[in-house]
Every structure is written in C-alpha cells, then in structure tokens.
Specification:
With 573 residues, the protein is mainly α. Helices cover 63% and strands 3% of the residues. The strands form three sheets. It has a two-stranded antiparallel ribbon with strand order 1-2. Strands 3-4 form a two-stranded antiparallel sheet. Strand 1 and strand 2 form a beta hairpin.
C-alpha cells in the first residue's frame, strides 16, 4: 500500500469520524423538532406543505400505520415513474436520433421500482435511453423521495428503542418532509454547486456532435447532470446519468469530485449512529456502532487495495537480486485519473453503502477485490449503508448478538433496557432470513435456467456465478452495483431483479417497524450487575464476529464456488 493511498484512506476515515458528532447532533435536532439554523427557511415551507397536504405532525402513528404510509408512497411513486418512462417520447427534451434504446414495459417496470426504492439498478445506458425530462422527473425526484423515506424509517426505528410505553413511533409524512427540507434539499443544493465547480454539466442543451481526427462523428451527451449526481450519492441511491456512472468524465471529472462524492454517500449514515446514541440517551452506544462500521470498512479497504495492487500487478525479476518487483497494479477497468487508490475507496464505499455509484468496472477487479464488494453487499448494508436502513441492519445484528449472549448465561436477553422475548426473536430471525433466502433462491434459478445463463455473455464458470450473485445481492440491498459482464436488460433479469428489489425494500421493513413498535410499547428495565454491556469493546468484537458467522453460514457455498474458486484457479492454471 503506497503512502498516497494511505493518506487518501486515512483522510477519508478521519473526515467521516470528525463529521459524525456535529452532523449527528444536527439530525437529532431536526427529528426531535428542536431549533436549527435552517428553521427560518424550512419551517414556513414545512407549514405550507402540512397545510396543503392536511398533515398533522403531532399525530402519532402506530408501526402498522407508519408501514402502510411507507408502502403507499413507494407504490404511488413507482406508478408515476412507470407512466413517465412509458410516455417520455411525448415529453420535452426527447432526442429520438440519440435515445435509441426502446423503453419496453419490462425495462420501465424494473426502472420504476429501482429508482423509487433507492436501488437504482440500471439495466440500460442512461444517455441512450432516458430523456432529460425522464432523468429529472423520475430519476432525480425518485432519488429524493426514496432517500427521504429510508431516512424516516431509520428515525422511526430509533424512536422505537428510545420510547417507553408508547403506541406511536412518529408521523411518517412529517418525517419525510423534514428529511427533504432540512437534510436532502440543502445538502443537494450545496453539493451540486461543488460538482459544477469541478466541471460537472448542468444544462438542458441538445447532445453535441463532434468530428474527431479520424473524421468520425462522436455524440457527446450532456444535460442536468449535477442535479442527479449529487442526490444519487447523498440519498444513497447510486444510479448514474451515464452508462459508466462515476467513470464518466462529466459525472465525476476529478479526484476531488470523486472524494467529495464518497463523503456525500457516507456522512449522513455514519452520523446516524451519533443520532441513535443521542435519542436513546446513551452516546456510547452510538460510538460502539460507529466503531464497528469503521473497523469493517478499514478491513475491506486493506484487502481490496492489496489485491488490486499486488494480485493484479505485473512482475519482473531483477538480474542482481532475483527478487520479483511489483510494477503498477490492476488498472483494467479503472480510470487513470483515479488510479488504484481512488477506485478502491469508491468500490468499498459504494458496496458497503446502498449506493452503487462506481467509478471503475467491478467486473474487472481481481477475484479478491470483487469478493470483498460481494461480501459487503451480503452483509446487508451494516457498514454505513443506506439512509436509515444501514443503521437498522447493524442494530438487528446487535440484537442477535445480545440474544445469543443471553443464551450462554441463561438469562432473558435485553438491549438498551428492552426485553427480547419470543415475539421479538421471531421478528429478528425473520429479518435475518429474508435476504439469504431471496438472493440464493434467485441465483439458483438463474444458474439452472437457459434464460438466466443467457445473460452471461462474457464469463461463465466461477466469475459468472459471482456476477449473478452480485446482481441479486445488489438488487436486494437497494445498491445498484453490477458486474458489467452480465447482460441484465432481458425479461428474465428485469423481472427477477425487480423481485429482489421489492423484497429488499419492503419485506425487510415489515419486521423492522413491527419490532420498533414492540419495543416502543415496552417499559425500560434498569441495568443490573448481570446486564451485558453493549457499549464496550468486548461487545463490539462479539458483534463483528456475529456478522462474519451469520454471513458465512448463509453464503459460504456461493462464495466458495464463485470468487474463492476464481482466486484459486489463478494458481492452478
């Protein structure tokens, strides 16, 4: 690992850590309705929206009502996006000479679900498929609403653990409006200006046709790129304006723009750990969760950097020492302006968070580099993750760790003074089983049917299996990352990835919110000398071990036949 790589990684981790406390405090003030600097602008707008939509922010919702509102927003948004995509040829800024990919019903269905669930799985090339109107009305707007809804779910889950003997966990519509007005809109406005400063286009000009030195015409797509690029990261969405996403020089022109984009992905999810600690009145609990996230994140950085630098490097032998000397690294599928370090940072950030806004082709990483990205997806967003949803996933693992620790000492497990009884245990187990069942079953169908295997246009064998696992894991975790060697714009993959998207977004939310409602209705039991401390280094270690054990038991066969086999084959061929 070079000194420049270490400096970039260290700067990123330090900045995220330093921003956690002030940003976490700000989020705490926003969602507990305390005063903030933006109130002078946002409060009048909030009151206007409440009045127009007839929302009473003081009206508490039960977990079931909160869930129904979440499902309603997702359903209505998906229908609206589907309609706009199917009718985009009749809307402004549609250039038929350049938008040549047909928007079929299956593709529109998949895209509508993808961009209203923050998945942003793209089975199409944006610059040859979507008009400017579609990019703004469906993709950008969907990113805002999907991100706000996810953040609301996370805040509601925290309230469930923070409240005592309460039937309500907040008001969904009020939380979504607060997430939009106080967090996403101001963050996107500032972030878009930074991107424009770095060279990202923000216009509605027609595509430019240039003639190169070989006298061949080249179509240069542009458009309202900055508006979409910032919210895809800030809202942990991930879908790019262009086909190659963050590798395109208009979407991600400089190393500084890339570094800024990665910060935009991570800052709010990381800060939610601090918000969690503040809302439950135990800041150390938040710092323990944040420490676990950072530890797993740093481990992933180290493995991918080593693999891409050494495993993918060319080697020569010096005549004097007869020792192999590493020359360069694996630059296949990577942009020279980012190098191995910038590509590694982006790969680890985007595969951990629910934001697949890659700047290098994941399909071209080494077997170990690709495996780390796949494992990050299979962990289920526990490292930073999506807005709100990442924190929920990590707390669920913490509840499993508390339950198993309680079994070891023969006492009823409790977390933050909340008893984990049979009903809570069933909801936790259901949450933990949904992902492996969905991903592995869909992957099994894909590798055992002609329609599924037909998508492997470049590689079959172990790498092909990895591509399929990444597709379904990415769809389920609402990430959007993909291995480009899998041709996914088919009826089979548009349909099956849509199933994974729906289950990952909505089926997981059901046990999470119901569990929050159960916890909110409980009292808080006082700690005793026999209570397991969940804010200690020992529990943090137990939590990391639990993550590895659960992931290993669930996915080890797939990982062994996929990236592990691919890595081993390097040494036997």
């Amino acid at each position: 690992m070079s000194a420049s790589s270490v400096a970039q990684y260290l700067a990123f981790v330090v900045l995220v850590t330093l921003a956690t406390t002030p940003l976490g405090g700000y989020l705490h003030r926003v969602f507990t309705r305390r005063r903030t600097l933006l109130d002078i602008v946002c409060v009048p707008l909030e009151r206007l929206v409440h009045h127009l939509c007839r929302i009473d922010p003081a009206e508490e919702m039960t977990a079931a009502t909160y869930l129904s509102c979440f499902l309603m927003l997702g359903g209505v948004s998906a229908l609206a996006v589907y309609a706009i995509l199917r009718l985009q040829t009749f809307l402004p800024w549609f250039f038929p000479s350049y938008l040549t990919t047909p928007m079929t019903p299956a593709l529109a269905f998949n895209t509508a679900l993808s961009f209203t669930t923050t998945t942003t799985w793209q089975a199409y090339a944006g610059e040859s498929t979507l008009s400017y109107a579609s990019q703004m009305l469906t993709i950008t707007t969907g990113n805002f609403l999907g991100g706000a809804a996810g953040l609301a779910i996370g805040i509601a889950f925290i309230r469930g653990l923070a409240r005592e003997r309460s039937d309500g966990i907040g008001n969904f519509w009020a939380d979504v409006i607060r997430a939009l007005l106080w967090v996403l809109l101001p963050g996107a406005a500032v972030g878009a200006l930074v991107l424009v400063w770095q060279g990202v286009p923000m216009n509605f000009h027609p595509y430019t046709v240039a003639t190169g030195l070989e006298h061949k015409a080249q179509v240069i797509a542009q458009g309202p790129v900055a508006a979409l690029e910032i919210i895809k990261n800030l809202g942990t969405n991930g879908g790019g304006f262009f086909n190659v996403n963050g590798a395109h020089p208009f979407a991600n022109p400089t190393p500084l723009a890339n570094f800024f984009g990665m910060l935009a992905i991570v800052l709010v999810p990381a800060a939610l750990t601090n918000t969690f600690g503040r809302m439950i009145g135990q800041p150390r609990q938040g710092w323990m969760l944040c420490s676990v996230m950072v530890a797993i994140f740093v481990a992933g950085l180290g493995i991918v950097d080593w693999s891409e630098t050494h495993e993918g490097a060319h080697r020569r032998v010096e005549s004097t020492t007869e020792r192999p000397v590493v020359i360069g690294g694996n630059m296949e599928g990577k942009e020279v302006r980012f190098g191995v370090a910038g590509s590694t940072l982006t790969a680890v950030v985007t595969s951990n968070a629910a934001t697949g806004s890659y700047n290098a082709m994941a399909d071209s990483f080494t077997a170990l580099g690709g495996m780390v990205q796949l494992v990050n997806l299979l962990f289920g967003e526990i490292v930073f993750g999506g807005l709100g949803t990442g924190l929920v996933s990590l707390v669920m693992f913490a509840l499993v760790a508390v339950f198993l620790a309680g079994l070891m000492v023969g006492r009823t497990p409790d977390y933050l003074g909340k008893r984990i009884e049979p009903i809570e245990i069933k909801l936790i187990v259901l949450y933990m089983l949904i992902m492996p069942v969905t991903v592995m079953v869909l992957a099994a169908i894909a590798v055992s049917t002609q329609a599924g295997l037909a998508g492997l246009v470049v590689n079959r064998g172990p790498h092909g299996l990895t591509s399929i696992l990444v597709a379904y894991a990415s769809s389920f975790t609402n990430n959007g990352l993909n291995f480009a060697g899998l041709s996914a714009n088919t009826t089979f993959y548009n349909t099956t990835t849509a199933v994974a998207i729906l289950v990952g977004r909505y089926a997981l939310t059901v046990p999470a919110l119901l569990l929050a409602g159960k916890f909110a209705s409980q009292g808080r039991f006082p700690s005793t000398s026999g209570t397991l401390r969940t804010d200690s280094l020992m529990f943090g270690t137990l939590l990391v071990g639990m993550v590895l054990i659960v992931a290993g038991l669930s996915y080890l066969p797939g990982l062994t036949l996929g990236p592990v086999a691919e890595h081993v084959l390097r040494f036997v061929q």
